[in-house]
Design goal:
There is one protein chain. The strands form three sheets. The protein has a six-stranded mixed sheet with strand order 10-3-4-13-12-11. A five-stranded mixed sheet has the order 5-8-9-7-6. The chain has a single domain (3-178), classed as OB fold (Dihydrolipoamide Acetyltransferase, E2P). It is mostly beta strands. The chain has two helices and 13 strands; from the N terminus they run E-E-E-E-E-E-E-H-E-E-E-E-E-E-H. The protein has helices spanning 86-89, 162-166, and strands at residues 3-5, 17-19, 33-39, 42-47, 51-56, 70-76, 79-85, 102-108, 111-117, 119-125, 131-132, 146-152, 155-160.
């Protein structure tokens, strides 16, 4: 089968060849270390180099007329940080805040952003053979921010291009020219 090359100058973007064979689709990405976390029953991963710190969840100050997934802002050592609830962003129906709920504080360009997740698991190093291409979805599913599917033993991680997600027009948080 014929391969197609996908190239991009953006950090974390898919930069390798993607085979069109469904069971052997492999991708090459710029990083191989990911912070894994859970949202609902699914496990996700983001580039560890985008993570500034992990904090326990504290209710943020609400912002009027903000989309439901923007919970508000917190003051982090003098920096006002918008807080995004990823469960709401990804349409996970049951949103609960408990002792495992954390905020992953990210550096996206020159902006600091916090994202609420159910729990943080660990930092994983994924080898190229552990990465699969994301299946194509119809236009109802926005998969532009998905990098790959990582598989480690019996675990499957949905790898997110967190910079692309946070700089999307829908989020309205960070200018995409900040890179």
């Amino acid at each position: 089968m014929e391969s197609t090359a996908a190239t991009s100058a953006e950090p974390g973007a898919i930069t390798g060849a993607i085979s069109s064979a469904p069971t052997t689709d492999r991708v090459k990405i710029d990083t191989n270390e990911f912070l894994s976390f859970k949202i609902g029953t699914e496990e996700y991963g983001i580039d560890i180099l985008k993570v500034q710190e992990i904090r326990s969840y504290e209710p943020p100050t609400r912002i009027a007329n903000a989309p439901p997934f923007i919970k508000g802002v917190v003051n982090l050592r003098g920096v006002i940080v918008p807080i995004i609830d990823m469960r709401l962003k990804f349409n996970i129906e049951q949103v609960r805040y408990d002792s495992f709920t954390v905020v992953i504080v990210l550096n996206i360009g020159k902006q600091v952003v916090g994202m609420v997740v159910d729990s943080v698991s660990d930092v994983l190093t994924l080898m190229p053979e552990e990465l699969q291409a994301v299946p194509e979805f119809n236009s109802a599913v926005d998969g532009d921010h998905l990098l790959a599917i990582g598989t480690v033993n019996d675990r499957m991680l949905i790898l997110i291009d967190i910079e692309k997600l946070m700089t999307s027009d829908e989020m309205g948080l960070v200018s995409s020219t900040v890179h």
